[in-house]
Amino acid sequence: MKILLIDDDSELTAMLSEYLAGEGFVADQAQDAATGIARALSGEHEAIVLDVMIPGSNGIDILREIRAHSDVPIVMLTAKGDRTDRVMGLELGADDYVTKPYFPPELVARLRAVLRRPARHRDQAERLRFGALLCDLGRREVRWGDGPVELTATEFNLLALLLKSGEQVCTKEDMSLRLFGRRYENYDRSMDVHVSKLRQKLHQATQDAVRIVTVRGVGWRMDAAA
After folding, report:
1. What is the pLDDT of residue 29?
2. For the chain, how many structural domains are there in total?
3. What share of the chain is helix, strand, coil (3-state, %, to 5)?
4. Residues 159, 204: one domain?
5. Are strands 74-79 and 26-30 parallel, antiparallel or unpaired?
6. 82 vs 158: CA distance, rounded Å
7. Considering just the CA atoms, what is the radius of gyration of the chain in Å?
8. Which of 3, 57, 64 is nearest to 32 (CA)?
9. Is 190 inside any structural domain?
10. What is the pLDDT of residue 159?
11. Residue 121 pLDDT greater than 60, yes or no
12. Domain coverage including residue 189
């Protein structure tokens, strides 16, 4: 599986690339913004690891540029305790984050989690419907009526989980395990940010004909206007 590391620390990325090779990944490297964006948009990589701290640029700007053209899964590397970049990155469409200094096995676990596809063991032609909302798992497309609904990879996976539950509640604990491969912690706002972004996009597409309802203290469920 081929991934792209966008990080200016050549020594660190060389060591990480070697580690990733032992885990079944082939890692390409980019050490500046222009190269990183060009390679990220080449379509050659299954996922991207993006360091927010890129000298002479800003990892958030790189993320914004990639997201304007591609929904490739992105895991950010952020400074420990830097919640601003973390939340902003998630708002702009990053799929997950790892704080530096990081434990390589944790990064691998995060990569594998964002690369998972819903129901990959099932018929890839499976389609999920909720009213006029169609989620095609095989084509990884979402449509409302005749129009497409553009989602990031994580938003797509999140919607698929909610649609499979119908009007039943999806708990935060279950969603965190299935989307990110980790237990849900009360201080971790990643899930809330992704749900908020997905909710906004569904509102724009369906004008609240299809909604995500919060069940306080438990999780979320789908709801259709009467």
Report:
1. 92
2. 2
3. 40, 25, 35
4. yes
5. unpaired
6. 25
7. 18
8. 57
9. yes
10. 93
11. no
12. 127-224
